Structures are given as C-alpha cells and as structure tokens.
## 1
Amino acid sequence: MRISRRKILYGMGAGAITGAALPSLAASYLYGVAPAAGAGAAGRPIRFDRNENPYGPPESAMAAMRENLGRANRYPDVGRALEAKIAAFHKVKPEQVLLGCGSSEILRMTADAFLHPGRKLVTATPSFPLLDFYARDNGAEVVDVPLTGDRAHDLKAMLARCDGSTGLVHICNPNNPTGTLTVRQEIEDFLRKLPPSIPVIIDEAYHHYVSPSAPYASFIDRPIGDSRVIVARTFSKIYALAGLRIGYAVASAEMAEKIGASWLQFSVNALAIQAAMAALEDIEHLQRNAAANAEQRQEFLKQAKARGMNTIESQTNFALLQVDRSIDDIMAHFRKSNLLVGPHFPGIDGFLRVSFGRPEEMVAFWRVWDTLPRKA
C-alpha cells in the first residue's frame, strides 16, 4: 500500500517549516504595487488593486484568533478539524478536502501533480495567471486560449487545443480579471467531450459574489460526480481572511491524495485554521458582505455611466473600467493621493481593473478620478 507524503506529514509532530513561495513574476498580478516611498505618511493607502474585502474579517473569526493567541508557541495541527468542518459544510467526505496556504498553494500543488516537461496547461487569457507561472516553472507548456467576445471561456477552442500531452485544464469562474461568467451548462458539455485522462481545476475564488439570478452554479454546490474535477476555494475574498493565507480544494478522495503529495507541512498556520473554522459558520457575515458588495457594484456602474464611461458587467468584487489613457499614468496619478489602482493585466489593454471599497472609499476613488488631467 502506497503511503503518501501528505499522510506521513499528518503523523509527524515536528519538522522543518516551509512556505509556499510565489514565483516573483506573479507577485504584481496577485498583490498589486506597493505604495511609493512616503505614500503612507497620511495613513495607510486605500487599495483598489487587490480584490480584497474592505469590510474586514467577521468578529467571530477575530474572537477565535484572540482566544488562540496564547498557543502561538505551539506548532499548528494539520487542519483535520477544519477539513472535517469544510466537508460537512459542502456535504462531502473529509478525505475529499485539501487545505492550502491560500488557494495559491492549491494551484501550486495541482501544477506539481500534473504539469511537468512534455505536458501542457490549457487555460484562458486573460485570466488569473498564477497557475501559468507554476506550469512554466515546472517546465510545462502553457496554451493560452483567448476568451470569447463576451469574455467567457471559449470552451470549444480550449477543447480543440487539448490532446494526449495535455496535463491540466484551468477554468477560473467567475473569471479574474474580467469579472465575467462562463455558463455552467457549457462547462458540463465541455467536460463530457473532454478526454477522460485530462483533469480540470475550476477556480471559484469569487463564487460568493455572483448574483443569484446569474446562469452560474458552483461545481461544489452542484457536483457532477466527475473524478477529474478539482474545485479551488479561498477564505481571502468574502470571508476577508486574505492576510492569513488559507484556501482549500474539494475533489475526489483519490484526486485530493494525488495533488496533496506535495503538500507542505505547517503551510497553514494555527490562527488561520481557527479563524477559518469560525468564519465558515458565520453565514450572517457572508450574506451581509455579499449584499454590501452588490450595492457597491451597482453604484460603481452608475458613477461610471454618469461620466460617459463603459464597464464590463461584473459578477465579482471588482470591475473593468474602459479608459482612454495609459494604465501606468492612471496608477501614478492615484498614487499621489495615496490610492492604489491597477495593476496592468496583459490581454485587457484599454481597461483598468478596479476593486470595490467601502462607500466612503469609492467616493474618494471618483474624487481622484475626476482630477485626472484631461487627455490632450
């Protein structure tokens, strides 16, 4: 019987602590740009560049962290209690859940399992690029397939690019950086036609922000019993725990075992585990934040329209704003007022991605926007 590295590490009480490092090239896409020197003199910058939840963690999560601070001298457990809670929440078995240092580690482990020299990643562009970096770092080829005209995944074209060398297909739904959806039925049709040997990871980081009326359904909430499907989720967005770095995958037990082979011991810290357990149960916080985001999304579209500007309809906590000038110039202008926007994403030239803030923060955004020098 094969004993996985993940199971061995589960049974260890101590060991070297390692981190889930990100490829340096991906950093600007993930985390935006740091404030210029002196930019924080008047206080912390207002960030419209990281797709963070501006309302902060639920009080229940903060209380859980306070209660466990006294145990900071102890190494964290391996998260079995949280895995069990996530499993119960999603009505799956605990062995189908895999924790990670943010969903970024889930993507890294999946790349390690399926992408290496001679293998290909088939993905959309523009889309969340982190898995692309992991694939290239492993020596795999990345096949970028442009989105459709309405900025959905072009699944017909992606299917055409899949062959015997395809190691993995990546679908980010809702998609970052466009904020758009790919219809659930189209993904199901794609899976039926896809060769049975090719696994698919569906990144649902922005799942909770989708309007209930949208033609969308999660592959966790409505599983199809396909053992090739891996669904990645994060506590960084609606749960507002981005700084704690915790995410998870739901897959078949066999798939979770395979991608967990490169799981890093202690990659999820003790306070993150406790905070996530509390946040998962705080449905009121989730609903309140989703509603607040929906209001700010509508207000953003209203303000853009009032200025004669076009936007891409979004189902997330950010939107694309069509601009007539350099993204770098806009970023520099906002930085003077200690507001951070951007970054520039390849494949969306002429659009600025704007993360939604609190109402007063969005007032500040438009105030600074209205002081942009007129284009000559």
## 2
Amino acid sequence: MTPTGLTNSQVTERRHSGQGNDVKLATSRTYSDIIRYNVFNPVNIVLYAIGFGMLLVGDYRSAITTVGLVVFNATVGIIQEVRAKRKLDEIALLARAKVSVLRDGTEQQVDPADLVLGDLLVIRAGDQITVDGVVAGDGKIEVDESALTGESDLVPKTAGEEVLSGSFCVTGETLVEATRVGEDSFANKLTQNARQFKTEFTPLQREVNRILRVLLLIILFFSILAVLGLFVLDLPFSAWLQIMAVITGSVSAGLLVLITLNYSWGAVRIGQKGGLVQQLNAIESLSNVTVLCTDKTGTLTANKIQYQDVYPLTLEKAALEKLLADFAASASTTNKTSQAIIDKLGGQKRPITSEVPFSSARKWSAVAFAGGGVYVLGALEMLESHFAMPQAARQQVAGWSEQGLRVLVFAGNEHATTLYDAGDQPVLPPLTLLGVVSFSDELRPHLPETISAFTSNDIKLKVISGDNPQTVAALARQAGLPGDLKAVSGPDLARMSPGEFAQTAAEATVFGRITPQQKEALVTALRNQGEYV
C-alpha cells in the first residue's frame, strides 16, 4: 500500500488542537527590551540623577555633558546588542529551509512551522530533520547526529528506528513520521536555554553598581538635609546650591563611560577576528574565566579518523585484515569508521543476507555473509558479554587507549547465519573474539600552543566528550593538557550522589560518554562552586 500522508483537513484539525510545530525562537530580547535596558540601567539612572542635580544648581554645561555621556553610553550598548541579536536570530539549530512532506498523496514543500504531529516527511541526502520521528518507509538513511550527541560517526536508520530533530541526512532516502513536534522535539529542548539572552553582571559591574547605589543614597540623604536646612534653618538658597554642586560632582561620570568604551573597543577587536560579543560585559568576563569546558570531536581533533592497526587473536594478521576489510566493504551503509578501514585496507564487497547497521545506542554493527558467518565490529563494553576475552587482548586495549587511539573489537561466528530473532529484533549469536582494532584521531593544528596559552593564564581546562574517557584523556595529554588527568565516564556520574557529582566535577579533567544533559549539569556544578565557566 502506497503511503499518502495526512489530508489537508487532518492537518488543519491537528493544528487547531495544538499539535503543530509552533515554536517561538526566543533567541534574544526584543529591540524594545534592548533599548529600555540600555537607557534605564542602574548606571544611567544614577547619571540622570547627577545631571538633574547639576541642572538644579545651574551648572548647565556639566548637566549637558553628563546627559551626553548617558546618550553615548546607551547608544554604544544598543548598537552592540542589536548586532548580537541579529546574529543570534540567524543562529538556530533548525534552519528555516522548506521541508518536503507527503499530504493527500502528493509531495509538497512547506515551512517547518507548518508541520503537524503525524506528518510524513520525505527525507533525502542533505536534508535537516526538523522534528522527531520514526522511519516509516522501507528506505535506509544515514544521519549525522554530531550536533546533538558529539559523536562523529554517521548513524544508519531503518524502518521503525527513531530520528532526532537537528540531525542531518547524509545518504539515502526514506519517509519519516513526525512523533514529537514544537517544544517537545529533542532539538528544541536541547537548545532552549542556549537560545535565551541572559544578562549577568561581571565582578567589576557589580562593584560599580554597589558604589553607585551607595552614592545615590548619599545624594538623597544630603538633598533631604539641604531641603530641611533651607526651610527649617533658614539657610540661603546659595548655600543649598553649593551643597548640591559638591554632591553631584562626587561621581565621575567619565569613569563610567570609560568602562563602556573599553568594553566596546574589545568587542570591535574580537569582531574583527570573527567572534560575536552578545553583551559588552563579555569582554570583562573573558578576563575572569577560571574554567574552560571543551568538546573533543572537531575541537581538539580535526574530525578525521584513520585506521591504525589490528591485534589478531585467532587468525594471521593478513587474513584478519582482509576479513575486516571485506566486512566494511560489504555493509550497505558506511560511516567514518568503516570508511577509514576501506581507505587503508581496500576490501571486496561480498553478498550478505542480513545486516545490523551501527547506531549510537548499540555502538556496534554486524553483517551475515551469504556463504555463512556473522561478524560484528563495535565498542568493547557493548560486546564483551558475547565472547571470552584473553588478558593479553585487554592489555592491548588498555595500551592503545592510553596512547589516545580509538579502540574497537572485531568478533565473529563462522557458522551463524542470522542476526534477528523471531520478533525481528537484532540478536547476536555466541561470538569468538578475532581481534582488536585501533583508529587514530588527528589533532587540530596549533592545539598545544592554544592550550598552553590557557594554562599559562591559570585557566583550568575540562574536556567533555561522548567518546571513551581513557581515549579522550590520552588525546588530551597529546594536546598538552598538564598534570595527572583524572578521567570519569558518564555512567559513573549517573550513579553518584549530588555531593559526589560536584566533587568529581571539580577534581576530574576528562569526562567521557557524557550526555548533553550531563554536560549542562557539570557546568552548573562548577559555577555553584564559584568557578567562572
């Protein structure tokens, strides 16, 4: 039966019932909010009071100068924050490109905001998936989820498997049924906090505001005394004017504007290097940073995987490498790992009867060759229950991990013929470990110099990644991170109490197998301990 998708009447009904992909992208404040804050912030309010006092005492030149400084101060802030708002409005995880959707049996191009729950999306190579869903067609696709999970490998998706909003289709074509839209989608939940414009005062601003509040109270106090003196003690009006002149001259308006000028100059210099300063006080924030959290993939590494070596157990090395190459070449879909094997070892494409593509949840892939034999390549922690592992192989895994190599295991059963049970769920037969395979990640150029610049300024670095913590720790050492790097995994963090979690966040340097939610929790824990992150 050929799928036809929803009818137009069903789309209208679901939209009216609140099942549309309606999301307000609150990337920043409105223009009116920006103007209101910059005109009436605490510093400018004090300057208004000073200017008004100068006006009362007849010092018109100083009053005009002070108000002029307020206008200049506000204008600089408004220009910078409006520029930041425009940039932030452009930076959203979900691009506003048209989406192909099947409705009334025909393919249509619609805006992502017009999607509703249950829509059938037509997904092709190059498309970004804008809502969460499941693969409904019989096609196969490979998606890039690195923006969501930090994992660089492409993830194959077949019928019934979930796809997440924010991921990209790299190869293949299929239909995807929308299961979560709007604010319920994964991408919108993940980026909700990141899209908000938050105002936080720097230490210098807090000190300046505190001093200004004290001075404002002093001005009010002496103003009251002056009024009492004028009417109760019958002081001459000239004496009151002299008192107000002294009070209003006690605050250096130029100093406040000088701070803004320095912020602005820093923002301009950063902008010339391609950076974006959301708020002017971010310039000072950079000088106060005590902890920098960074990812591995694409940050420490250049996101280029290369086949390194194989440690054979039951076969000769040449025979094992040929089997491994044929395994990679025979899969219907390839990812960066299998492509690295093919690039180095070649491989002959052989007919297969069954296949389990790689997924970030399973962390392994498998094929069943037509002539018999099931073979699987994946993460040790996900496969070690299926085979016996000699101590020598464990030592090899540990040794390669300490060198910063990415390590996978290759196992097989030459007599098995299937990879699925009666319920069509992936299932592995008993396996024999054939070998341990290593891959290398290329570090980004000039990385050691960059890290040295941070550490020389007493900024602590913490690497938070979705990869194996020991491998990440070794790469961090190669990159030049100093000291004895303590590594911890996401599953270990999940079992900790809040107190243990906070202590580990402070003491550890490398965090592996970390989820996006754990990344946010780590930053929060560090900030709660007084770190500037």
## 3
Amino acid sequence: MRLLTPHGQEHLLRWWPELDDAQRACLAEQVRAVDWSTLARARDEALAAVGPIDLPIHPAPVRRLAASFEEWEQEQAAAETGQDLLREGSVAVLLVAGGQGTRLGHPGPKGAYPIGPVTQRTLFQIHAEKVLALGRRYETSLPLCIMTSPDNDAQTRRFFEEHRYFGLEPEQVHFFVQGTLPAVDAASGKALLASRHELALSPNGHGGVVEALTQSRLLARLEKQGVKHLFYFQVDNPLVKIADPAFLGLHVQAGAELSLKVLPKLSPEERLGVVVEVGEKLRVIEYSDLPAELASKRNERGELELWAGSIAIHVFDTAFLKRLAESSALPFHRAHKVVPHLDHAGCLSQPEKPHALKFERFVFDALPLARKALVIETSRREEFEPLKNARGENSPGTVRQAMSNLYADWLEAAGVTVPRHADGSSRFPIEISPLFALDAEELRGKPLNLEAVEGPLVLE
C-alpha cells in the first residue's frame, strides 16, 4: 500500500483479503517490481506527445554505398580497424529476441523458428553460428547478449541449453530480460489487473534494452571485460552481417557514439522508420508518424526524398548507453490497445474498442541524444529480409528465397554456375553455414569442387 497510495493505484489490492498466500506473494512481487514513478512519467509523457513535429524535416546525411575506388579503399581501411576491435575484445553482440512466433503459427520464441532454406536451421542457430565463426576468425570470444521477454525467457534459455549453445561456450552467452510496465485505463490512468493477483503487464519496448542492460548489471560486466562497442540487431533478420568490421571501423573512425544502417525504402508505405534531420539533430520518425505528403515526396530523379529506412542494425558505445541509463533520457510512447482486464466486479472484461494505454520506449530515440552519430547505407539484398508474417511479404518463403539469392551470389563470385529464374532469383534453395563461410570472400578461398548448382545445395 505504501508504494501504491502516492500514485493513486491502491485499487490493485481490492481483492487482497480473498487471495491465498501464493497469490498474495505473486501480486506483491509484481507491485514491488514496478517503478510507479516511472509509470506516472510514462503516462504524462505519452499523453503530452500528441502534436506533429513543428520543425522542418530534411533528409539525413548518409554515407552512401561505395561508388568509387577511393570510397572502396576507405571502406577496406575501416574494415581493418573493425577487425582490430574484434581481435582486442572490445566488441559484444546484442540480440533482441523477446518476440514469440505466434504470427508465424509457431509455438515458442520467434528465434526458434526453422528458416534455413534446406536444413531448416533456426534463426537462433544462424545467429549463434555467425558469432562462433567470427570468434574463430578473429581468435576471440565474442560475448553474445540476448534480450528475452518475460514470455519467452525460460523457453529461450532452455532452447540454447538443449542445443549446447550451438557451439558457443555457455559463459559467453548472456541472457537478460526486457522490462515491463502495467497497462493503464486511458480515461483514469489506473493500472489494470489481468486477474485478482496479477497486473496487466506489457513489454516496455525495444528501448527498454538500456534499462535492462543496467538493471541486470550486464553493461557493467561487459565494460569490466573491456567491451566498448555493442553491435545491436533483431532476431528476425537472418541476413544481418553481425559485427560487420567495416561498420564498426567507420563508427570508430567517425568518433560516433551511435551508428545505424539504413537502406532505400521500397515505397512510402514500407513499414520502416525514416532517418531524418530535424532542427540539426538526427532522429528516426516512425512510418506511421510521418505525414503522407512528406513520406511520398520525390526529388527530380523520382527518388523518395526521405528515403533512409532504419533496419534496426546499430552500434552503440557502452559509455553512451551508460549515460542514457543514468539520465533515463529515452521518452515513452503510448499505444492505444484493447487489454483484457478485471472490471470493478472482478469479472474478466474483453472490450471491443481500444480503451487502455501501453507504454514503450524506442531504441532509436537515442539518436538525437548522441553527441556524434553516423548513418550508413547498406544493401537490402545483402543484409535485410526480416521474418514478420506467415504469408506474403517478409514471410518464410520470401526469407528463404532471399537467403538462397545471397548464397547464389557468393557461389557465382566463386566461379560456380547457378541457375536463375527470369527475375534473377535462385532456381534452387541454397544454404551456406556461417561455419563454412561467413561471406563471399571466405567462400572464394574454399576448394568447392563444384562447377554448377544442380539442385538444393548445403555447404556446412
């Protein structure tokens, strides 16, 4: 009651006299775990942030893909810097993996979804094998930090244990759990109950990674180990170049605290936030928040003026993350949702219309807070095909085809003939384990004994 009364939330104990000891312990633990001052701040910030951006919005300055030999040489020099960072142990990998596979019809964590075009390797296995291959290449033990959610933490830990961490040492894999906040009634601001002894909790957004890293003390442990840079990505993208040396090198050479990769949006409607410049500060505007006339505006070449779609691939300096955590600087955003909850009579209510607010932070809101930030263009074909939907775009079929297309490109660069469809896509499913080759250059150095692809192909 001491925690709840100052914030007007004492109604959460309405059924306390009727609860048994186990239920009381559950509710008490959940109440103690909530920072009620933070919840009040989240509500106030989210309700205040309803107006449009009132400053001019300009395209962000972006380092484009290398278009000249000089730019290619600069990239190679940056890659050498990044390789040195990996060898000296100053880089860790941060995998955001709190999602479930529900939308894909898959029970359990999304990372456990089988996506390999031939072998059905899971997303987790693909990412873990990339980390393992990087460690072998650079003779280092690259820390893999995995942010789970309360819904999938136990399942994720068990999945890694059952698969013996995919060859990684257990001590180099660090699990930590994303935070939650109670949903509140939109009209009254009162926190909602999912049952008489449980709060209606929801994840606090991928921006919650900053708080979770510090509260778990993982950030402090990484810094003690000498880690200065955190490579951040999301579990649903199997094409990501984990700890890309060129990206790391460019980040350090620029003196940036935060760097991110972007690519040209396919259309104004593509569901990617756009990196822009507002009032001399870089920021990401969610696709749903960008006015339609700005989102669709094109230059004289017919290209989208605000083209730089953010794909959730970042490099953070650990010192910057520490500063963000100390200042609690990331703002909260609201989502108006339908939340099943107990009504005043203690019965489960299933509203038909959105009536509640959920609060979350976005990791890209760190961008304008960085003293120096760098935005780099990457290739969609080489690095972005996320698994989002059961059918249509960003579905298992399109992701497997994108993986096969990338591996087909690697094979052709190594002198192997690959049959193609009329649209240029690989005719056969192809899969190359990261433990066989991390990139096209490594594949070219392998004795393949293969002249042409004549059917489904696995190299491992």
